Prior knowledge:
Blueprint: H1 7-25, H2 32-38, H3 43-47, H4 53-76, H5 84-101, H6 103-118, H7 124-147, H8 156-176, H9 182-194
Amino acid sequence: MPKRIDHEERKEKILKTALEIFARDGYRDANLSVIAEQCGLSRPTLYQYFKDKDEIFYYAVKLVTGRMFTRYVAVAWDESYGDCIDRIEWICNDIIDEAVRNEASLQSLMDVMLQSKREHVDFSRVIVKRTIKMTILFKRLLNAGMHEGQVVKCDVDKVSGHIFTLLEAFCFQIAFLGNFSASDSKDFISTYLDAYRIREK
């Protein structure tokens, strides 16, 4: 009986290998034949999963953001995680923890982005498109918090933008700086969010 292939597992293996090769050889010089060989696959088999390097990168972003967003939507409307500010803080802390746990993959992804930018291949639109849902989720939570008397009246566009920018900065630090402190970053997020919390008198 032939061995059953887990196609999602294989796609993720191709993805992980490709990101390592992109980071090592540069996005433009990376070769699909080398990726296939490193995965123990033929090039035609690789083409069954990805038609080119761009599709591999898009899949990486889609996979990470899709999984995270699905989890965070469930948390966002679950009152067992606390009030709206508590839920935003939980989501931010989890993003930091995920980034720390996946430091090597994050570093590879950012290396690819930096190298491709130098080679005039800009993936920023893809990133923005895939992450805009997180900003919208923060806006909805802030609006819900204002409606429920948990959050002070504020410009939700600006505040959600600030939160997202902080998370981007933390991810950059995790990938490239050796002195990143998850606890300090979480404290910073907590202090920032506390400024928008309405406290009971």
